[in-house]
Write a structure and sequence with these properties.
With 189 residues, this protein is of the alpha+beta class. It has a single domain, classed as PurM-like C-terminal domain (Phosphoribosyl-aminoimidazole Synthetase, Chain A, domain 2), CATH 3.90.650. 32% of the residues lie in helices and 19% in strands. It contains seven helices and seven strands, in the order βαααβαβαβααβββ. It has helices at 22-31, 50-59, 65-73, 87-98, 120-130, 142-146, 149-152, and strands at 13-17, 77-82, 101-105, 136-140, 157-164, 170-173, 178-180. It has a seven-stranded mixed beta sheet with strand order 2-4-1-5-3-6-7, sandwiched between helices. A hairpin with a 4-residue loop joins strand 6 and strand 7 (178-180). The longest helix is centred in the middle third of the chain and has 12 residues, at 87-98. It is globular. The two termini are 29 Å apart. The relative contact order is 0.28.
């Protein structure tokens, strides 16, 4: 059984796997002419520099196929999508297909650990609009999330928000303000 984009329900919690923003930052570095040592392409968690690791996230993404197979088998997720176009675009796809809205809490977003030298605004832009992280976004009923410890402990995931009844509206909630998100991720033509 596949988990579709169209199954999110009001009150569902929104989860993402892994870390966000690294691939977009890596692309920016490469576009700006940063040197990439092709001989050192083992893994993102290597002892290489943060810039090297960011470029590696762009050039050698780590897809979440195991998690993607686990979610439907365990009947955990109500909806799911890969984060290939950016969190804002991909979450919008789920909201539109499901006829719902969403709230995302900035302080819950799991930014790539290699983004230490970037401002909070840059990290947020990379995560929301950059894409190509190839992590998964999925929604879970609250009662399932409470019982998730055994299952979701098998892979890193973070609750970043909740599904709302305000169809098509995605709000970004920070300590000081609530902003309605524009769709600025990758647009397919």
């Amino acid at each position: 059984n596949a988990v579709l984009r169209s199954g999110a329900k009001v009150g569902d919690l929104i989860f993402v796997t892994g870390m966000l923003g690294g691939a977009a930052a890596g692309l920016k570095l490469l576009e700006n002419g940063e040197h990439f040592d092709i001989a050192n392409t083992e893994n993102v968690e290597s002892s290489q520099s943060p810039n090297h690791n960011l470029m590696l996230r762009q050039l050698k993404p780590n897809s979440q196929t195991i998690v993607g197979k686990l979610l439907p088998r365990e009947c955990l997720a109500t909806s799911a999508i890969d984060l290939s176009d950016g969190l804002s675009s991909d979450l919008r796809h789920v909201c539109e297909a499901s006829g719902v809205g969403a709230k995302i809490y900035v302080d819950k977003l799991p930014f790539d650990v290699n983004l230490l030298d970037y401002s909070e605004a840059e990290k947020l832009d990379f995560a929301l609009n950059g894409g190509e992280d190839y992590e998964l976004l999925f929604t879970v009923r609250p009662r399932m999330a409470r019982n998730r410890s055994k299952l979701l402990a098998k892979f890193p995931s973070t609750c970043i928000g909740e599904i709302t009844d305000d169809a098509g509206k995605i709000e970004l909630v920070s300590e000081n303000e609530v902003v309605t998100l524009e769709n600025r991720g990758f647009q397919h033509f």
